[in-house]
Every structure is written in structure tokens, then in C-alpha cells.
């Protein structure tokens, strides 16, 4: 899987990674801070962070001994655009189906 959109959707498929992104939406955090709410090892959290970093949804800086993580929210834009585009297609199809069903109902009334 090499295309950017697939990397983003794959990263978003996991609830732990989505929770990490939600936490980072409130500001930078270290791995220890990100691991606190989860019942998993820091190593497991680090693996989730690597997936998010590979999808470029987060970045890591270096500050003394810490490597705080930050959300790269702009990287979510292509995924949001893809969803919006497909939502419009399906909404149009549902609207046409609803109109067709209404027409059928009108023709069926005595």
C-alpha cells in the first residue's frame, strides 16, 4: 500500500489511532502522555505512532529528552474531500430513488 489516501484510511481504521489523533487535536503530547489512557504498553503505543507517522498524520519534534507528537491536520483534508465527494454521489442516488418511489406511490393510490 503506497498511495497517500490508502495510508491515511489504513491509519484511521484503528480505534486506538483515532483516539490518539483526537488527543493530539488538543495539543502536542509525548508518548507517555499518549499512552496514559490505554491499557497497553508504551511499545504498543509507539507502533501505533509509527503507523500515524508513516501516514504523515502526525509529526515528532525533538525537545531535550522528549519527542512530542503533533497532529498534522492538513493531512486529513484529502480523505475528507474523498468522503465528501462520494457522499454527494450517494446522496444524489438516494434523492433520485426517493423521487422514483414517491412517483410509484402516487400511481398506486386509488
From TrEMBL:
Domain annotation HTH arsR-type: ranges: 1-91
Pfam families hit by this protein: HTH_20
Transmembrane portions of the chain: none
CDD domains the record matches: HTH_ARSR (cd00090)
InterPro entries: ArsR-like_HTH, HTH_ArsR_DNA-bd_dom, WH-like_DNA-bd_sf, WH_DNA-bd_sf
GO function terms (MF aspect): DNA-binding transcription factor activity
Entries under NCBIfam families matching the protein: HTH_metalloreg
Name this polypeptide is given: Transcriptional regulator
Source organism of the structure: Phytohabitans rumicis
